Each structure stands twice: as C-alpha cells, then as structure tokens.
Amino acid sequence: MSQPAPNVDELVRSIAEETNTPAETVSKMYADTLANYRNDARVFDYVPLFAAKKVRDQLRHHPDNKH
C-alpha cells in the first residue's frame, strides 16, 4: 500500500514558514532533493517524505545553505 503524495505547494509553504526561507528556495531544494532520492530509490512510497525531511533539516541546521 503506497503513501498518498503530499501536496507539494503546502509542503513547501510549511517548510518556508518554519525555516524563514523564501518559498522559491525551498521549492528548488525540495525538487533537487526529491530527484536525487528518486534516482537511487527502489521503493518510492516514502521518497517525498524523506526529501521534505532532508530539506527541513538542512535549512534548520545550516541556514547559510540557502541558495
């Protein structure tokens, strides 16, 4: 049973608000991270959740990584 896909706009908006980062930056980081995870994944069910977590963690712990 696969996970429902997250609403990407809502997810990006949430991460942007939590980390005080422009939505455009979060959107780009999320898309890049998601693409990287999808390249190596064998099971895709949780890939969007892992990508969101990685972006959120990067912005929280390394705020100077904002592109």
- What's the Cα radius of gyration? 12 Å
> Hey, roughly how much beta strand do the residues contain?
under 5%
Distance between the termini: 36 Å
Return the domain count: 1
* Overall geometry: globular
> Quick one: how many beta strands?
0
> Order of SSEs, N→C?
HHH
pLDDT < 50 stretches: none
Give the count of helical stretches.
3
Round the mean pLDDT to the nearest integer and report it: 89
Q: In terms of structural class, how would the helical and strand content be classed?
A: mainly alpha
Give a written overview of the molecule:
There is one protein chain. By secondary structure, this protein is mainly alpha-helical. It has one domain (8-65). Helix content is 67%, strand content 0%. The chain has 3 helices and no strands. The chain has helices at 8-19, 23-40, 47-61. Helix 1 packs across helix 2 (23-40), helix 1 (8-19) runs parallel beside helix 3 (47-61) and helix 2 (23-40) packs across helix 3. The longest helix is centred in the middle third of the chain and has 18 residues, at 23-40. It starts with 7 loop residues before the first helix and ends in a 6-residue tail after the last helix. The mean pLDDT is 89.
Short description:
With 67 residues, this protein is an all-alpha fold.
Give the secondary structure arrangement, pairings included.
Layout lengths: L7 H12 L3 H18 L6 H15 L6
Helix pairs in contact: 1-2, 1-3, 2-3
Any descriptors?
67% helix, mainly alpha, 67 residues, 3 helices
